[in-house]
Amino acid sequence: MFSPEGPSLRELAVQALSSVQRGYDLLAPKFDATPFRTPDAVLDATASALQRMGPFGTGLDLCCGTGAGIGVLQRVCRERVTGADFSAGMLAVARRRVRGAGPPVDLVRADARALPFGPAFDLVVSFGAFGHFLPSERPRLFAQVRSVLRPGGRFVFPVAAPARPGSPEYWMLLGFDAVMRVRNAVWRPPFVMYYRTMPFGALRRELSGAGFRVRLQPLPEFGRRADGSPRVRLVVATRPQDR
Fold it and tell me: Whose CA is closest to 87, among 51, 129, 55, 146?
């Protein structure tokens, strides 16, 4: 994170004391050099799984950031791809970097909780964005996603298995969340970024409550833990066909 290409400690401090939107506007030019960007291995594994499900017509990358996930959609969608994010700075970087063969790409500045689309998409993906939504906001977010999907459309995103209690990863994530909660208790505007993995049970309930049929699909590229459970799963939430 503190490499010459990434943000300095001072820059990160300024960003962390901003709002989420302003923080990402500031971080955008160096975002792809931070650990916050979704790794290519996750993007490639998701694309491979989607290729087996597809092809799709139109796709939306929700909270697209600098556009890493748009390349996934370009590989599996035939008609048009849209990226939506509320950070103008992140979208500016995406406009410079989104290239390659595939369908045309639109980039739209929008809040994921109030999307400016009708039911126009066959596929919605999202990578690494849900830590920016409080649990109380997720039902509204998932309802918005359902509203922009055509009947039979899918909402797909990868989720890593929760860190085991007592593991170094567990304590790191717990400490990060604790720092963010203290920061938000004493400083305004709030900066919502909590990276502890969402429990699968809660995800199922919230997506089902928004009207999706939900299944969890292991991503075999990442193997399994000692107890045999997948290290990374793909959440596949389908909007049922209208009757």
Answer: 129
- Per residue in 159-191, pLDDT (tens digit) is 988 878 888 887 887 777 788 788 878 878 877
124, 82 Cβ separation under 8 angstroms? no
Cα–chain center distance at 243: 31
Q: What is the pTM of this model?
A: 0.89
The torsion angles phi and psi of 17, rounded to 5 degrees, stand at -95, 5
Token reading at 55: 């092809």
Question: Within 13 A of 198's CA, how many CA atoms are on the CB side?
Answer: 25
Quote the CA–CA distance of 18 and 65 in Å, as a whole number.
17
Secondary structure element (H or E) that encloses residue 3, with its range: none
Cα angle 18, 131, 152; round to 5: 130
User: Does residue 62 surpass a pLDDT of 90?
Assistant: yes
31 contacts: CB under 8 Å, gap ≥ 6: 24, 37, 65, 66, 90, 93
